[in-house]
Amino acid sequence: xxxxxxxxxxxxxxxxxxxxxxxxxxxxxxxxxxxxxxxxxxxxxxxxxxxxxxxxxxxxxxxxxxxxxxxxxxxxxxxxxxxxxxxxxxxxxxxxxxxxxxxxxxxxxxxxxxxxxxxxxxxxxxxxxxxxxxxxxxxxxxxxxxxxxxxxxxxxxxxxxxxxxxxxxxxxxxxxxxxxxxxxxxxxxxxxxxxxxxxxxxxxxxxxxxxxxxxxxxxxxxxxxxxxxxxxxxxxxxxxxxxxxxxxxxxxxxxxxxxxxxxxxxxxxxxxxxxxxxxxxxxxxxxxxxxxxxxxxxxxxxxxxxxxxxxxxxxxxxxxxxxxxxxxxxxxxxxxxxxxxxxxxxxxxxxxxxxxxxxxxxxxxx
Length: 366
Fold this sequence. Notes:
Elements: H1 2-9, H2 13-34, H3 45-65, H4 68-73, H5 75-92, E1 94-96, E2 99-105, E3 108-110, H6 112-130, H7 142-156, H8 161-177, H9 182-194, H10 196-202, H11 205-215, H12 226-237, H13 249-252, H14 264-297, H15 301-325, H16 343-362
Antiparallel strand pairs: 1-2, 2-3
Helix pairs in contact: 2-3, 2-14, 3-16, 5-6, 5-7, 6-7, 6-8, 6-15, 6-16, 7-8, 8-15, 12-14, 14-15, 14-16, 15-16
């Protein structure tokens, strides 16, 4: 009982509150970005997002009540199940927007690659945690590399270039915190850079076009560059304080494709302006700071690796999503955590935050 009281005393209320505030802002923005569709509330995206949030709360309660070491004990099983799901989605998943990434369950789309991010963090943390003091040898990098390569290839085949590339920095961050020698990690990075010309030829036509459009959106202003151009117009037109909720013209007049998912930040920029966008960014920065802080404060090697992996995951998703809406990153289909519509992304993010809180609550018990 004393341990339980101490754990809940260390529950990071501020982290949970900031995540909830971001989610509520996301609901308001989803409503604004989809109301032009004229759907009744019973069929609305907001209701579906709320339903996913309800499912997420069930997982959240489970995650914070069970010691994160229990999840690490099952890490390889969770990883293997997720790999199988990635294989099955390539065989029997349904395609959308040129990619085969989803299963359909009772009318809801389920995307296994979103959960692969968490599975990889757990598997890498479980392995690195076991190798205390021995991660400096080159041989001990073979298994972690295999754990990365398998989902990387499967996700890339969907194709989902953004999520596949997102797994790579998570891999390096966990190995670095786990004690792997920097010279080995540097060589691996340089080897990856050397293979980039080969990697370019493996990309599909529309992926190459997106990368070219990133350099110059006007290369294809009515095709691949259209969304970026309209997104920047929307954000720029928001000015300092924005046009007001439900009053964004680029949004309400349907100029921005995918504005309730990948490009939802453009709606926030237009309706809430620079100040609203800055508030959202600051909330994200505080969550990411808390995540890294939890990793620094825990003396447990496993918890340190997990917290670092989750912090890197959240920070990269925010940077890449916002970056692509303002033209500083190529369009790679990364959702904005807790804001973009999408049940799989929302559920995976809630689980990630639950794990962070779990580590923070138990950092003094290991």
